[in-house]
Write a structure and sequence with these properties.
Blueprint: E1 5-15, E2 18-23, E3 34-35, E4 38-40, H1 47-59, E5 63-75, E6 80-90, E7 103-107, H2 119-128
Parallel strand pairs: 1-6
Antiparallel strand pairs: 1-2, 1-4, 2-3, 2-7, 5-6
Amino acid sequence: MSKPHVRVVAAEVERDGLYLITQRRPEAVLPLLWEFPGGRVELGERDEDALARELLEKIEARVVVGGLSLHVSHEYERYTLDLLVYHCELVPGSEPSAKHVNEVRWVPPGDFRDYEFPGADQQTVDALLGE
């Protein structure tokens, strides 16, 4: 029996050489791991609309969603995750805050190794670092 596929979108937001990452809540699946902000695409929803909605809901940030940066497919025990990462820019005056995440941080790429990411996000980190 094949595993179900879950479609998730995430934002690659860069500002002054720093990238925006968020920490999952303690009660979340894969608790307290770090990730690029985003979430699930709902049935019938465009990726770009899902990403804008998720960022507004989770970190109160308004973004302009740009082009696709990276597509990662990662096998977890019970499902396959299709992670689509899009370049995004914050709308002027929009500053992320930890509404439905544990924490929000701006991190230089050289410090990514100091944070634990889930498997799919780690592949994104590796791609950003050219590994």
